[in-house]
Write a structure and sequence with these properties.
Blueprint: E1 3-9, H1 14-26, E2 32-38, H2 41-48, H3 58-75, H4 91-102, H5 107-119, H6 128-137, H7 142-149, H8 154-167, E3 175-178, E4 181-184, H9 189-195
Parallel strand pairs: 1-2
Antiparallel strand pairs: 1-3, 3-4
Helix pairs in contact: 1-5, 4-5, 4-7, 4-8, 5-6, 6-7
């Protein structure tokens, strides 16, 4: 009997980027059903009273940068600490991801492609052309997915996914929920595996 892992994330999080390769491996397990749920991080921050990184105390910002450098080196993933296009809204990218899932695509590689675009490739994920190119690089029909992402109801679905995250107690990205247990952070993926 398979277990469901609800995977809440934002497509602008460097920690989600660092964790995504391990998510891709975990999602290959036959006994797991991974449910991808993108959310609006700013609405989450507003709900829980958190500050976005650029507004945090300098000591917090300094430690965050150190952690990102450590994890980037440990995992062998290139990461630009000050990407050209951060922070930016993720609505367009998230709606394209929802459209890809509607089309039956595995969302994992597309999530990785979008995150890599921000944190390693200096690409702007608010641009339709950029999103189409990323999707095409993942073997999908990028132009068709961008068009589908702009259909009526897609923004509302993204907003609903954010509301579900809030209702489920999510306060950061990435967050995994299995059997009513919450695992927050890419550094908790090993604990998630143990729980599974």
């Amino acid at each position: 009997m398979s277990k469901t892992v609800t995977y809440y994330f934002t497509l602008i999080s460097p920690f989600t980027y660092l964790g995504q390769p391990r998510v891709l491996e975990l999602a290959k397990r036959d006994d797991l059903d991974f449910v991808y749920k993108p959310f609006d991080i700013m609405k989450i921050f507003n709900e829980v009273g958190a500050l976005p990184p650029v507004k945090r105390h300098p000591s917090h910002q300094k430690y965050r940068a150190a952690e990102l450098q450590r994890w980037s080196a440990k995992l062998g993933l290139p990461l630009n600490l000050k990407p050209a296009h951060f922070p930016v809204p993720t609505q367009a990218a998230s709606c394209m991801l929802l459209a890809a899932m509607d089309a039956g695509a595995d969302p994992g590689p597309l999530v990785m492609g979008i995150l890599k675009a921000v944190w390693a490739e200096e690409r702007n994920i608010t641009e339709a052309e950029t999103l189409a190119a990323i999707a095409s690089e993942c073997g999908l029909d990028g132009a068709a997915l961008v068009a589908a992402s702009q259909a009526d109801g897609m923004v509302e679905r993204f907003e609903a996914s954010t509301a579900e995250a809030i209702a489920d107690g999510v306060f950061g990205s990435p967050t995994f929920i299995v059997d009513d247990q919450i695992f927050w952070g890419q550094d908790r993926i090993a604990m998630l595996e143990e729980a599974l």
